[in-house]
Amino acid sequence: EGQRVFTLSSNKGTNWVYDLISIKTKINEAKPEVIINFVGTFTNDYSKSYKVNVLAAKNLLDAVIMVNYNGKLILIGSAAEYGIQEKYYEDCVEKPRSIYGLTKLMQHSLFQYYVNVFDIKANYIRLFNVCDTKCSNDLFIGNFTRQLNLTLKGAVNEIKLGDLNSYRDYLLIDDIHEGFIKVIESGHKGEVYNLGMGKGLFLTDFVRKVLSTLHLKVKLTIERKNSIGSIDTKVVAEINKINNIGWSPKYDYKNLIRLYCT
Questions:
Q1: Residue 3's pLDDT is what?
Q2: In angstroms, how far apart are the furthest CA atoms of the chain?
Q3: What is the b/e burial string over 109-126, where b = at least 16 CB atoms within 10 angstroms of the residue's CB?
Q4: Which distant-in-sequence residues (6+ apart) come within 8 Å of 103 by Cβ?
Q5: CATH number corresponding to 131-166+199-236+250-260
Q6: What is the pLDDT averaged over residues 135-141?
Q7: What pLDDT, on the 0 to 100 scale, is given for residue 11?
């Protein structure tokens, strides 16, 4: 709030440009105090994923070095980088199971190289899952929200979802915003921070509680198909590290479901 925000685009925002010269020019023009790389794609197409998740990040890091940027740089990673773990700590050995997770991990390797070799103020936030009605349809929440809206409009009376037999770690946008602010203000140089609730939400329970809260009686069909990086286990962030710099989630799952339904 009260801050100017700049985006890197051309043609009035309809086309996004992430080449080195464009990024360098925008940094010189805007002189931002903070740069956050929100660029990303969930595609399992390696060429597209590499171009967006890896090359754009490398161009940003190169541009930061070329202009001697002195502000804070934030790169956004993903829980998909971890793969299957007993505990999801920031320093565990990553085992990605999707092209998305792999290319995000490649971005992290770039981050490690640049913060070790160059004097830049940068942090890496591994964001787990976002609970918001504006999420991409490629994600569970986005797909569920889209079908939920159609049901509320009376257009359909059936919701089709993938396997719900998993626990995931979700946060509301407000908690994510506060987490980013805390890392920007207090994150230690070169450190990686998990950003999640730190507790698991069983997807079956989430869906049924949302339907109950909205008083919806619809047919729920479970299609046995894997989503991107699907892991039938408990994927929950260890958040002690970000707790130690002063952040913790404000909303529990009861309030998350209530606010999602409003």
A1: 62
A2: 58
A3: ebbeebbeeeebbbbbbb
A4: 46, 49, 50, 52, 53, 54
A5: 3.90.25
A6: 91
A7: 41
Q: What token pair was written down for 134? A: 């504006």
At 227, is the pLDDT very low, low, confident or very high (cuts 50, 70, 90)?
very low
Domains of the chain: which residue ranges? 9-127, 131-166+199-236+250-260
φ/ψ (deg, to 5) at 74: -120, 125
Cα–Cα distance, 213 to 121 (Å, whole number): 44
Listed range (77-81, 128-132, 218-222, 251-255) with the worst mean pLDDT = 218-222
pLDDT score of 203 more than 90: yes
> H-type helices in the chain, by residue range?
20-30, 46-49, 56-66, 99-117, 140-152, 173-186, 203-213, 240-243, 253-260
Q: Dihedral, CA atoms, 74, 77, 252, 212, nearest 10 degrees?
A: 130
pLDDT digits (tens, 9 = 90+) for 102-133: 999 999 999 999 999 999 999 999 999 999 99
Query: Is there a contact between 194 and 88 (Cβ–Cβ < 8 Å)?
Result: yes
Contacts of 19 (CB under 8 A, 6+ apart): 59
Fold entry, domain 9-127:
Rossmann fold (3.40.50)
Reading the block at residue 46, the tokens are: 């390696």
Shortest CA distance to 126 belongs to which of 210, 223, 242?
242
